[in-house]
User: Fold this.
Amino acid sequence: MSEAAEQGPGGESEEWQPADRARLVLWLILGAAGIVYLATALQLPMEQRGRPGAGVFPVVAVTMFLVCVVIDLARIAVARGRGQWERGGGRLAWQVLFVLGALLAYVVLVGVVGHLVITVGITAGLTIVFGRRPWWQMIIAALIAGVGTDYLFAELLGVRLESGLFEIGVTEWI
Amino acid sequence: MDLNSGLGAGFAAVFDPMVLAMLVVGVLVGTLVGVLPGIGPVGAMAILFPLSFSLDAGAGLIMVAGIYLGSQYGGSTSAILLGVPGEASSVVSTIDGYEMTKRGRAGAALAVAAIGSFVAGTIAVLLLMLVSGPLSDFAAQFASPEYLALSVFALLVLSRLAGGKISTTFMAVGLGLMLATIGLDANSGTMRFTFGLDELVRGVNITSIAVGIFGIAEILLLAEGADRSQALPKVPFRSLLPTRSEIGRSTPAMFRGGLIGFVMGLIPGPSAVVSTYASYMVEKRISRKHKGEFGKGAIEGVAGPESANNGAAGGVMVPLLVLGLPFNAPTALLLAGFTIHGVTPGPTFMDTEPVLFWTIIAGLYTANLVLLILNLPLVGLFTSLLRIPRDLLLTAVLIIAIIGTFAARNSIADVVWLLLMGVLGYFMVKLGISRVALMLAFVIAPLLERSLNQTVVLSQGDPAYILTRPIALTVLIVTAVIMIVPIVLRRWSATAASKSPLAEVDAS
Assistant:
């Protein structure tokens, strides 16, 4: 997909349009991860029984990656020096952070409270944040999401979902 | 198995009630999700992909292929009715399709899009049948140097076609290759980059990568977008009939679009998107009587591009089935599906798994037929999806994405990767970095590493060894030409422009 096309229908002016500063931060984070990866890769064998070892391919991959990071960092530095720093516009929407928070909550809490309870919680939270509906509709939506997905996946599709420390789940009830 | 008996066996397998039901489910669900702006074919496939794991290989792969074809068709529905493309390859259809809607010809535009998709799908399946056999025989000569050259070709050509800066595309490629090396190395049995964590031994799952960088990233974009609602035009069933003139004008465009799409599908990169632009330009250029209508509701401007993206969907199956190499994101997911079901596509696929091979071919054709039969009468149902409140839609998609990822390996670590990949995918979209490059590199990495290692062994330390292999050398020359020619042409045109009299006038 071309990048312009990949952007999808989200390119309105009020939305966050990060530019060189965000790029710089992302490159530095990924670059640091790349250096850790390279250091680890160099400890892997480079030759095993006359064949290329487990470290060869990772070293090739991370070298390409780090070279590209350095090239783009240099480009950003030159652009800043020439006063051609892209500033972008808008700011990161709190709704985005909320969705990520919901996903993080699932990861952290699913083992404790189980899929059903955490899904009810996430659905309730998201419908409060993104919708304007009466409380009873939110409760119905949350219960349908929690019980419905638990029943559909655990009972009908045979996917073993977490029931948590208290073993709360449709499978446990049936 | 010859062509006739193969095709017969394929259709017999597809018309098994279970397989047919999964195909219909895939096509319908794909269309439903494809109608929604923001969640494109890859997002739809990625989110629904884990649902196919519990099925057998034929049913599961046909379901995923059905989702792909359905979501492509669904994308054109919202493009034509609302001027909002449901996915990237429908962008071109908005130009004339939406204009037709404004003129009260929405039904005809939708019908032509559906018929065009069917015609192109038929052309693509026929060509796929014809070329797969000879190409498989040819590809049977390939050894590791040829696969190494082809993998390099796929990644380098993609970097030219993905758009954006080459350095950032290669960064994405590097990241994809790095992610693929985490876990137990199948070649040497060495643990790599696990840092003592048991959760990393099995490596990063393709589902976490695909659903994260496409599915979760789309959900985040959906979350930050303003709640836009638009009045939906009514499409009465009788308005779906194109006029005789519209049929006459669109039929040749469908055939041209189908062929253009199929050929474009053989090239690595965003073939469906590129083919729609190419088809539109061809139709506009060759039109004599109706050139002025382009941009104002020309039926050829819908028929050509809509056929082209379906033709490309057939074309991309050739490298996947014959070489085992995915040339775009949807086929990368399909390859992952093959792997999960323990099937390896490639030159010997036709001989080792003839029934599955022909089931997929017959399934692709049947999916196009199902799209044609079901989608026009159900167009009202699909567009009513656009009225689903954003809070419910977002929650439903998020929960399906989480469960789907978890279900792939019953691992919460995969959901952690989903979160990380979702954040990365969101930033990649925002910063214009190719997500397809990352995913393709991740999928190709095992083949690339294996063929690199084997080529090094075969070459006995001679770097020129690969140049002594005619097929590998040809692939490398083609790659070099594709990489270098655009740069030379750009320099050439810049030099020519600076030497022209107009430039001197401008300078003065």
